[in-house]
Fold this sequence. Notes:
Blueprint: H1 6-14, H2 23-41, E1 47-51, H3 58-65, E2 70-75, H4 78-84, E3 90-92
Parallel strand pairs: 1-2, 2-3
Helix pairs in contact: 2-3
Amino acid sequence: MKSYDRAYFERWYRHPTDRVSTRESLERKVRMAIAVTEFLIGRRVRTVLDVGCGEAPWFPIVRRVRPGAKYIGIDSSDYVLERFGDTRNIRRGSRSGEVGGLTISY
Length: 106
């Protein structure tokens, strides 16, 4: 089973050559997701549910782009929950769970 520990996030999110995206590309992706969602729902985004959020890199961008929107991240990593859980509003979720039965209060 894959371990989503600090080393995993260091390699895939901060390593100069192995990382999956840059800050600039992440910003564009979040802005695009918000814009497309707002186009489809016909109003501004008020809540964001980020399932499998990892360290929640979307959190600061969502807060900046839509300051009033509520962000909730779901992740199974003990490392993520211990380091970022409170500051980035991340809750524990499991990879075997179903999103359809998830109840979230904020």
